[in-house]
Every structure is written in structure tokens, then in C-alpha cells.
Design a protein that fits this description.
The protein contains five helices and seven strands, in the order αβαββββαβαβα. Strands 2-1-5-6-7 form a five-stranded parallel β-sheet, with helices on both faces. Strands 3-4 form a two-stranded antiparallel ribbon. The model has no long low-confidence stretch (mean pLDDT 90).
Length: 154
């Protein structure tokens, strides 16, 4: 795709995004990093701190824990239900992760900023998943439609 396409905009109804973020509890974060300078680390930290059950996915066998959370080396290794697969990998890999998200029974496929593939979206949507691409859940949580989760302990 042309370089200018990196800024591709996907318009989502704010209520669609809000409903996803209200309904999911368990998020498999593909491409999670233990490196505190990486964007994925900050997103993992924020989502974990506000109450989501984050399952970091990183194929490096040397990475076994991130912020005290057990690291899975693949989506297939996860041993509990996953509501959302959040992908921090190159957009060329999204289709493969769409296939894996379907296989593990996820309800949502979310492509981070810069991660989008219309064929992956169609595959996931045809399998019944909700899809968001080229967006960050951490950013979306702070948009005006978001209501704080006041039930969480500080």
C-alpha cells in the first residue's frame, strides 16, 4: 500500500467503540513488550491498571512476565476465554491474527494504530467478531463518551 495510506481513517460510531470497551474483560495483547519505552508497554500498563485482564502475547521464549503478568508465546497457548485480541504487529500480519482470533473464539479483533487490513476485517466480521482497526483502546477510553469505572479500587 502507498505510504500515504498509513493515515487511513476508519470511522467507527463512538457507541460501537464504547460498547466494545465496556463489554470486554479479557484482552490478549499480541506484540506486548517488556520494554518500558514501547507503546505496547504503556497500553498494557494502562489497560491493566483500569481493570482489564491483560494476557500479554510475545513469541520470545526469554520473555516470561511483563508487569507481573504471565506472558503467553502464542494465542493458541492461552488457556482461558479471550474477549478481545489487540494486535501490536505489522498490518501485514493482521490477517493471520484474525484467523487465530476466530480459532480461539475471541469476540473482538482490534488492530492498533497503523494496523489495518480490510480482508482481515471481513474475515473476522464474517465469523461474527466485532472489528476495530487503526485505533488504540487506551486512547479511545479517554474520549468524551467514556465513563469512568468507579467500581474499581485505587
Amino acid at each position: 500500500m502507498p505510504e500515504a495510506d498509513i493515515d487511513r481513517i476508519y470511522d467507527y460510531d463512538p457507541e460501537y467503540l464504547a460498547e466494545i470497551l465496556r463489554s470486554v474483560k479479557t484482552i490478549a495483547m499480541v506484540g506486548a513488550s517488556a520494554d518500558k519505552t514501547k507503546f505496547s508497554y504503556g497500553v498494557l500498563r494502562q489497560l491493566s491498571e483500569i481493570g482489564y485482564d491483560i494476557l500479554p502475547v510475545n513469541p520470545n521464549p526469554k520473555v516470561t512476565e511483563i508487569r507481573g503478568l504471565k506472558v503467553y508465546h502464542s494465542l493458541e497457548e492461552i488457556d482461558k476465554p479471550v474477549d478481545m485480541v489487540d494486535v501490536f504487529r505489522p498490518k501485514e500480519e493482521l490477517y493471520g491474527f484474525a484467523e487465530k482470533a476466530i480459532a480461539i473464539g475471541a469476540k473482538v479483533l482490534w488492530g492498533q494504530i497503523g494496523v489495518y487490513d480490510d480482508k482481515a476485517a471481513k474475515l473476522a466480521e464474517d465469523a461474527g467478531l466485532k472489528v476495530v482497526m487503526n485505533r488504540c483502546p487506551k486512547i479511545e477510553l479517554f474520549r468524551p463518551f467514556w465513563k469512568p469505572r468507579l467500581d474499581l479500587k485505587i
